[in-house]
Amino acid sequence: MEEILKDLPEKAKDKHKENKKFFAKLRKKPPKHLDSQMQELHEEEFERTNCLNCANCCKTTGPLFTNKDVERISKHFRLKPSVFIDTYLRVDEDNDYVLQQVPCTFLGADNYCSIYDVRPKACREYPHTDRKDFHKITNITLKNTAICPAAYNIVEEMKRRIKL
Ligand code: SF4
Ligand code: SF4
After folding, report:
1. Sheet containing 97-99: which strands, arranged edge to edge?
2. At CB < 8 A and 24+ separation, what contacts does 46-54 make?
3. What are the phi and psi torsion angles at 97 (to 5°)?
4. H or E stretch including 50?
5. 113 in ligand 2 pocket by Cβ < 6 Å?
6. Is 123 in the pocket of ligand 2 (CB under 6 A)?
7. Is the shortest distance between the CB of 72 and ligand 2 below 6 Å?
8. Which of 145, 134, 109, 120 is nearest to 18 (CA)?
């Protein structure tokens, strides 16, 4: 996995133009069964990919924390939300709560998430490749192909299967 992660930004850069073109077409005319096709591609990829061997998302890019996330996780730690925020979060340029630092504080050396059951919604949904109306988040996916090997593979397989 280390080797794969090392090469991923370069591989994603090589495919950037091609992917951008493909996504532009996808946004213009999304296939009728895109949601179910994405579900299938996502499930197939995650049968092969074990996130515990990777954790690159947790190491390199933190999630956004919604107010609900903050409430749930603070409760888990028995902290006041304001104390949790002061200890772990900061406000970014888009006015969202994000981690003060990456790798994420809650990531263990064994790649397990210490707050897995109460983790932020964005962590649960990453890399968003099984999301409804996938064609609406292609800009995020374009970025994620350089971070997440599964997202990279899913996009490659999409181009093979979905003829636009
Ligand atoms: S979601 Fe992607 S980047 Fe995150 S651990 Fe799984 S394969 Fe790695
Ligand atoms: S909260 Fe858990 S899943 Fe989310 S980035 Fe941190 S370690 Fe990863």
Report:
1. 64-65, 97-99, 89-91
2. 46/150, 48/153, 49/149, 49/150, 49/153, 51/111, 51/150, 52/110, 52/111, 52/112, 53/1, 53/111, 54/1, 54/5, 54/111, 54/148, 54/149
3. -80, 130
4. none
5. yes
6. yes
7. no
8. 145
Ligand 2 atom showing the smallest separation from residue 104 Cα: 6
Q: For residues 80 and 74, is the Cβ–Cβ distance under 8 A?
A: yes
38 Cβ below 6 A of ligand 2: no
123 lines ligand 1 (CB under 6 A): no
pLDDT tens profile 119-140? 999 999 999 999 999 999 999 9
Q: Tell me, what DSSP letter sits at residue 62?
A: P
pTM, two decimals, is: 0.93
Mutate to test the pocket of ligand 2, among 52, 113, 117 (most ligand atoms within 8 A of CB): 113
Read off the pLDDT of residues 19-66 as tens digits, 9 standing for 90 and up. Answer: 999 999 999 999 999 999 999 999 999 999 999 999 999 999 989 999
